[in-house]
Amino acid sequence: MLGLALAVAVVRAERGRLLRRLVLTASGVLANFGGIPLAFAFIATIGSTAGVVTGLLTDVGLGLGGFSLYSMAGLALVYLYFLIPLMVLTITPALEALRPQWREASDNLGASAWQYWRYVGGPVLLPPVLGAMMLLFASAFAAYATAKALVGSSVPLVTLQIADALSSNVVVGSENLGTALALGMVVVVGLVMAFYAWVQRRTQRWLT
To answer: How sure is the predictor about 83, in pLDDT bands with cuts at 50, 70 and 90?
Structure first.
């Protein structure tokens, strides 16, 4: 939702060309900045012991208010760092494809802004928004290196459990656990991608 709001603000900005170029360029860089370097960048910034910002806040008696980077909340924050720019890159073409004639026709017929988005803009944008959300889910679901470097095995992500099951942490009687988890992951990602392809076909009816 944050990525969608940012994309809408950029597309509707009065001086949109330069701002759009800057935001899209930054989004392209941030969306591809992941893995171990991203984890270490956050550790060096707001880590519990080595974080520069954490140290500055501690010196003035503030701290992070009980927030831990090495938790599910911290992992979600790190994931948002590259998922929000990815959402901006994915949804901006759909927002730009909304025809101004639709809004003009809506205004000429006496519809309010809410009615336009409720009956025209919203239904047209719903398929690409759902498709973008599925793409973000698949990206977060399959991420491994960032989570491994940041939280290790303390957060039970599927990718981390597969790595543990295929390495040394094998419980007697659960030798095939990693294979089963990997198969389930392939099925989930396959369903997501199939839904994304179906949504893309529906989107092309209106936004091409």
So the answer is: very high
